[in-house]
Amino acid sequence: MRSESHPPSGRSKVKLSPAHLQKVAQTLARHGYLQTVRGRGGGLRLAQPPESLDKLAPAAGERVLEIGYGTGHCLVQLAVAVGPEGKVFGIDLSEGMRARARERVEKEHVIDRVELSCGDATRLPYPDGSMDAVFVSFTLELFDTPEIPQVLAGCKRMLRPGGRIGVVAITKEGKEGFAVEAYEWTHQHFPNLLDCRPIFVRRALEDAGFAIRNATIRNMWVPVEVVVATKV
Asked: By the number of CB atoms within 10 A of the CB, which of 19, 64, 86, 138 ranks highest?
């Protein structure tokens, strides 16, 4: 998993100092738009849109995979949704994140229905047709452009017929303004601060052969796509 640096378009003249970037990030964090991930693999990430898991609609007894679970906030919500008869799987590239996520699910008393792995999502280690749903939040845009189809192909392979995938990602759809240009510039020059860049979410899912079920764009100072699709 590698983040690909895409320079902004030729019209962009955004130039920000590290001190200015820090002040901007602190302001955005105060208003709930960014969250800080500390430790190895950390940095600044967009906060989770509250409706994203609702759109995926995980249900009791289901088997759900989260790709890029980070510190485990969504793992807990998924584990509560699937209940004691269900199972939540998680894969993340960072050993540090696995340790932090495990602490969180243990604290919330749902560790009995959560199985965490550390690995690369371009080579998902789960059997064909073994999942009812897959959730990917602010992770797909971390992959190099040629790797995104590989990740989505793996998701499609693992899903049962009719299974669902929910993707939340910074999008290149819609209007681009100063915020998007500043985000792309920051990703290019300070990848350790902002480690992802905007992508075409719905288009990537359609190209992978998924049927779009619901797609919305939410403005969280940068446009964010929340897309749910099904395996056909």
From this structure: 64
